[in-house]
């Protein structure tokens, strides 16, 4: 009897699973049959036709990017179109033009996968209360794009324009490209590109003292090779070219260090870069442990025929492990990675210990 009940239960479960699968398939087929393929961009505008993009952050703060398009003609009659984006809520913020341009291009290129021709209520597609709204302003007015829920079968998203009842499916959610804070809009300051072969000197102010690494010319030693020819009974002298080697000193005292260790310090300095902007308009470098700094790194290098210097100060370590940094002549306090910082400190310690 127990075996019969078990068999019956298995049959019932199998029927339910099959019915559910058929239902999902039918639902997917029904959507396919009640829709048409869309080939035109949803917003119907060019990237240069966008004058502003407006959206709300998760905290409800409105963000707005504005685009100014200007056309110039040179003396040969060649026309050039230039676009400049701005962030009116904070004009002092160094806006990353690439972030704005890519967002505008994403919206301009947004093309529906399908247009639902027999759609139900907006609430069935998560569009009664959209997950996101993006307003795009043009010379002709404004367009509000509403994003709904995701179709679990096709993985597409439902979308519509606020002033229209037509519902579309889109393969990507443009709301995921929206910056959610000012920090995501900032153009991060870059450090100069310097090759290791151009560096002639590295001066490091460290807690252990003033470490100096300098390239010095080492004269070759003459090596005499006695000839085995008894008839001439002569010897030949082999002369090599001078070489450049690293010489290290700490507070004026010469250190005995190998070339690989000295070069590793310079390479680790050149590997440093800002991962993020900590403050684009710092009022006090002391707030970031940069005045005085924990470490001050100065490189002397050749740039063509000229000799130039680059100085980077390292300060406080932040809660995420990154380290505050400031380059002389720069405007931002940036953050370098904890990994690169640790590699540099290890390389410095190796040279000093030798």
Key descriptive features of the protein:
single chain; 354 residues; alpha+beta; Immunoglobulin-like; 2 domains; 4 helices; 21% helix; elongated; disordered N terminus
Report on the structure:
The chain has 354 residues and is an alpha+beta fold. The chain has 2 domains: 37-184, no CATH class; 196-219 and 241-353, Immunoglobulin-like (Sandwich), CATH 2.60.40. 21% of the residues lie in helices and 36% in strands. It contains 4 helices and 20 strands. It has helices at 2-33, 97-109, 259-270, 338-353, and strands at 35-37, 52-56, 62-73, 79-86, 114-116, 132-138, 141-150, 157-161, 167-170, 199-206, 209-218, 223-226, 235-238, 243-250, 253-255, 276-279, 295-303, 306-317, 323-327, 333-336. The strands form 3 sheets. A 9-stranded antiparallel sheet has the order 1-5-9-8-7-6-2-3-4. Helix 3 runs antiparallel to helix 4 (338-353). The radius of gyration is 33 Å and the shape is elongated. The N and C termini lie far apart (85 Å).
